[in-house]
Write a structure and sequence with these properties.
It is a single chain. This protein has 337 residues and is of the alpha/beta class. The protein has helices spanning 33-37, 44-66, 85-102, 111-117, 161-171, 179-186, 210-225, 232-258, 273-286, 295-298, 303-314; strands spanning 3-8, 13-20, 23-31, 75-81, 106-110, 129-134, 139-144, 150-155, 262-266, 289-291. Helix 4 crosses helix 11 (303-314) and helix 8 runs parallel beside helix 9 (273-286). The chain starts with a strand and ends in a 23-residue tail after the last helix.
Length: 337
Amino acid sequence: MARILAIESSCDETAASVISDGQLLSNIVSTQIDVHRKYGGVMPEIASRLHAENISIVIKEAMETAKLSFEDLDAVAVTRGPGLIGALHVGLQAAKTIAMLYKIPLIPVHHLAGHIYANEYVSTFKFPMLAVVVSGGNTELVLMKDHLDFEILAKTRDDAIGECYDKVARVLGLPYPGGIPIDKLAKVGKHSYDLPIPLRGEKTLDLSYSGLKTNVINLVHNLEQKGEKVNVEDMCKSFQDVAVGLVIDRTIKVVKEHKVNQVILAGGVSANSYLREQMTVEMNKLGVEINIPPMWCCTDNAAMIAKVAERLYDLKVFAPLDISVDPNWEIDEWNKF
């Protein structure tokens, strides 16, 4: 029975969790959203400083909640990437210090693998499986034929879907993070703005959100210059239909081509109600099981890192203490560091 402390600090949440033989003993998260909201997005330098201030407090609370001492631990796991380089360094240095002081293995964990495996707290994976990873920094379709077997079938060519939501929300005068207000207003809006569908006509599974974001921004500015008022609810509906529709379209294509048994949503944008509803409808049409994570699994946390770490511990995937972070680490290279 392995007792593992997991640490997550890839963006704007400082988190620590303790897991023991599949049982989650603690899951502590300190969010920075209120600080970054005034800037309309995450400020990397501020995020790093706040992680440095909070990391010891969060780890201490996670250990106390789990009712364990550091001497009881068998390993310490940490998010190595992808993410903000400064933020990742804070978590890694804390994990290295614990590993060195208590002479326990250091387990490097891929952030997106964590989002995928968060679903294991509520469901059993059925392979071959498609993970639809949608977040503020990443948008990927990942095929899994077995545990820890990741094949990237598609990814965004530019902006991630979550980043696009945040920037569209900013130009519409909506608060950060943008996903929640846009999703809410879209429910009462109409699809009245003609927005371009990214990569239309191209034979590709890739996604793209930069052009859609730019089109919305230009459209809003042009209307304002003419003295016309933007219907925010309608713009939210028009934008969300296209943004989510692209993910749905690509998912349907992959499911048909690879005959997957299960589709799971992962990442912060998987909390979007329209994505959840539409994905469920379309997968039911295809007769494919769809698993949607509970809300607590969607945002960044260390419990998801702990879940992956248990499998890596059994495989003895340990890192030397001179390992560094990798903000661009690809999920199909999770064991290369």
